[in-house]
Each structure stands twice: as structure tokens, then as C-alpha cells.
Amino acid sequence: MMELHLLLKKIFLLVALQGFSCQDHSVLLPKSITALKGSCVEIPCSFNVVSTDFQLVWYRDQYGIDPQIFNNKNPSYVMNTFNGRTFLVGNKSKSCSLRIDDVRDTETYYPCINENINCDQYSAFEKVLVQVSDTPHKPVLNLPTSLNEGISALINCSVQHTCTHNPPVLEWNKVGFNKREWREELEEGIWKFVSEMDYIPTYQDHGTPIECKSIYQMGQVLQEQLILKIQYPPKHVIITKPDGEKKIKEGEQVTLQCTSNANPPAKNYTWYRINKDGEEELKEHGENLTLTINWEIVKYSCSARNELGKNYSTIMDLSLFLYAPDNGLSKLIMLVAVIIVVPVLLLILYCKIRGRKLQCCQGRNHLEVQICEDTYMNTYMNVMQSDSSAKHPQQKGAETTDNLYMALQKTDPNTYVEFKVRDF
């Protein structure tokens, strides 16, 4: 009976000690957490004992004596490489959460509270492995499944991190409105930083990239890019002539094409003919229109429609493509005109000279008239030679028609006779 009593006593003591051990290890913290090198990490930690004044010491687990990396009562006990890099965060009444700035190496850490909670390194107690990575997380873009021109859409970009004290900066390459930023906890020690804004799509942005960059404390930059697919009604509706600048004649057939920029593409087209009575809608509803040229009706327009709306083209004037005569005929007409005009001009010149001659010789005898006519003829020939060869210098003693005319007006008739005899 004595032996049974002693055995029961040992069992009772063992159970009591086990309960004390459980109380001693009532610390909650994650098994591991991954942090970006050079950034910070916040290790979530809590304990059950509510106390406004407690001693908290964090240790780095290693062979031999474990150095202190944080001590809220005696900071001077902290090893030099962790001075100014560790801070207590969270609800201070029951929080043992620790922030480590400028994370450098993969290490294991553990807290000790009041020298009796999670402090026995020779028994099982809670530790956390901080794994250091050189590669930051890539941002994630979230867009609505459908984007319509002019309708505001909510878009956001998010990135995971471990440092709420200094999270990465998120930047957009598109302009938005009502920009908002917040953080949310994903799991123990892992946070998501979110940037959200209202974006108003435009048709110019269709097919262009939307980009979100995450910029980290140490200068690392990662980006996520998506191509925008924006729906919009027809834009830039125009009429084209597939055969280009080819000239057309009345009675010939010509094909016109109605084109537009739309997403989804326009599927319905309407053609209009413009005449003196106004605009007339044609029965054709295809992208192409083939018509026979009638120069009384040469103006056309079209409209394009898709699920989102309708738009109109400007008017095409087919008279711009009117067939013009061949250039050879134009040259022939000019040649005929020259042949007719030149003799007429020469005739006018002759008549003017003839008129002056008659004025000069009027009232004189036959010999004087003959001399006068010969003189004018010589003068006429000199004038014609001067006009045809202006580059030859004028001979000494030559006189212009006007000078000779003045001489004939003022000289005595006998002088003309003598002048005539000397010439012959």
C-alpha cells in the first residue's frame, strides 16, 4: 500500500509540473516567416498573462550562450549588431511582437517573458525562423472583366510584404481618381499592401499597357503589366476609295468603302446620298458601296454602328476625282493660240508704223514721198533687227525711230533729196 501511495504521489506531482510547463510555454508565434533582405519584419507574438509591466527579452538561438537582440528593461544588454534595429510593437499589455529593421541573415529567435514564460531552452519552447530572401514579391493587378469607354471602373494593385512600418510604394502608369491605399493581414506576419483607384477608360487606351510598379526600401523595383481591352463605339468614320486617286468618268462604276475604329468592330453600315433636295438614305448596308457615276449626284456619306453606338463620316465629293483631258491636247491648243496671236501682233505693229509714215509724208511731192517711204522702211528694218538681236551693240551713227521721226519732221525737203542721192 505504501508503494502504491508513493506512486500516486509521483503521478500527481508529474501532472502538476506538466500543467506548470504548459503555463510556462503559453506564447503564440509563427513557426517561420520570410522577410526581404534589407527590409523589416514584424514577428507577431502574444502571451496569456495580462500585464502592463513585464520584462521581455528576445534571444537569437545559436550554439552556446544565446545573445539578446531586444530587452525592454535593459537595452544595454542587447548585442551591438542589433542596437537600434529591434522594437516592441502591438498591444503592449499582452504583446511580445518584435520588429527587426534591416533584416540581414536567416536566423531563429525566441522571446522570454518575466524570466519564466518561454524561457527554458532545455525544454520544448516556442521559436520562430526568420528566412531572408533577396527577391521581393511581384505586385498583382486586378481589373474588371469588362471596360467600357467613359464608364468609371475600380482597379487595384497589391503586393505582399512583412514590413508595415515601411511598406513598398505602389505606382501606376495611368491617371486615376479617388486613389486609396490600405493594408490587410493575410496570415501571421504577412501583410498585403493595396493601392486602389477609379479609372475612366478612353478609346485611346485600348491596346495599351496598364502597369503597376512596387518600389521597395532598398531600391528594388518589380512591375506587373496587363493590356487594356476597352470597348467603345465607332470613331473616325471615313469614306475611302480603294483604287486611290484613279480618275473616273460619268457612267463608270466606282466602289466606296466605309471604315471606322471601333471595339467591337462595326457590323452595320448605312449609306447616304446628298443631292439638291437633301440627304437620302440608300438601301445598301454593307461596308462597301458600288455605284454608277452621275455627275449630278456626286456627294456621299456613311455611318457605322456597333453594340455601343453609332457615328457618321464626313461627306465625300466625287467631283474631286473627275477625269481631266490628256495634257497633249492642252499643248496643241496653246500652239494654235501662239500661231494666231503672233501674226496679229506683227500686223498691229506694222499698222502703227504705216500710220506714222503717212503722217510724215503727207503734202509732199512724189520724190519726197519715195524718200520718206524708203527712210521709214530702213528704220523699220533697223527696229526689227534690234528687237531680234538685242545682244549686238548698236552701230555708230544709228538712230532710233523716234529720233529719225523727229529729223524727218524738222529737216528741209531738199535735205531729203540730198540724203537720198548720197545713199544711192
Give a short synopsis of this structure.
The protein has five helices and 26 strands. The chain is α+β, with helices and mostly antiparallel strands and 424 residues long.
Describe the model.
This is Ig-like domain-containing protein. Residues 234-319 form the Ig-like domain. Keywords: Membrane, Signal, Transmembrane, Transmembrane helix. It comes from Xenopus laevis (African clawed frog). The chain is an alpha+beta fold and 424 residues long. The protein folds into four domains: 25-133, Immunoglobulin-like, CATH 2.60.40; 140-228, Sandwich (Immunoglobulin-like), CATH 2.60.40; 234-321, Immunoglobulins (Immunoglobulin-like, Sandwich); 328-387 and 397-423, no CATH class. It contains five helices and 26 strands. The protein has helices spanning 2-24, 327-361, 366-388, 401-410, 413-423; strands at residues 27-28, 32-36, 41-43, 46-47, 56-60, 68-71, 86-88, 98-100, 107-113, 128-133, 140-142, 147-148, 153-161, 169-172, 177-187, 190-199, 209-215, 221-227, 230-240, 253-263, 268-275, 278-281, 288-292, 299-306, 309-312, 316-317. It has a five-stranded mixed sheet with strand order 2-10-9-5-6, with no helix packed on it. Strands 21, 22, 24, 25 and 26 form a five-stranded antiparallel sheet that branches. Strands 11-13-16-15 form a four-stranded antiparallel sheet, with no helix packed on it. A hairpin with a 5-residue loop joins strand 17 (209-215) and strand 18 (221-227). Helix 2 packs antiparallel against helix 3 and helix 3 packs across helix 5 (413-423). It is elongated, with a radius of gyration of 54 Å.
